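Entry for the shared binder. Reason: the reviewer on the internal report wants the predicted structure included alongside the sequence.
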Amino acid sequence: MKEIKFLYHGRRFLENILKPSLSTGIGSEKDSLCAIYASHDRNFAIPFALSIMADKSNSCNWELSFENGNPKLIIKTGKLDTSKVGYLYKVPKDAFKQIDEYQWVSYKPVKPIKYEIIDPKEYLHWIVKYEQNNEGNR
């Protein structure tokens, strides 16, 4: 495995300093920390830069998985706003602590090294439409 020199952080807004905020992840406790999340995998961070907006019932729920190494974004509730760009920040690895295979966290503000603009239209092929199953299990 090659040495990790920096991490990626996806965010919907342009900021000079990234500050910890309470995450609303639906996984385990580690997905709901008051922190800045980052990943060494660029494709893991990009969905967090996309403007996935709440639906009419004020619900927004999506899931990221990988199929044969390719990102698959399942939007369960809400929808992608393709008119708004997001930002993928490159951040210093030494400001973060690894908490699982993909995620790293920082509990202190972080100054990004640089950023790139993420156009959501370039990632439409990642999105898989979500359909509720007939048994009502969700």
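Summary line for the report: Confidence is low (pLDDT under 50) at residues 131-138.
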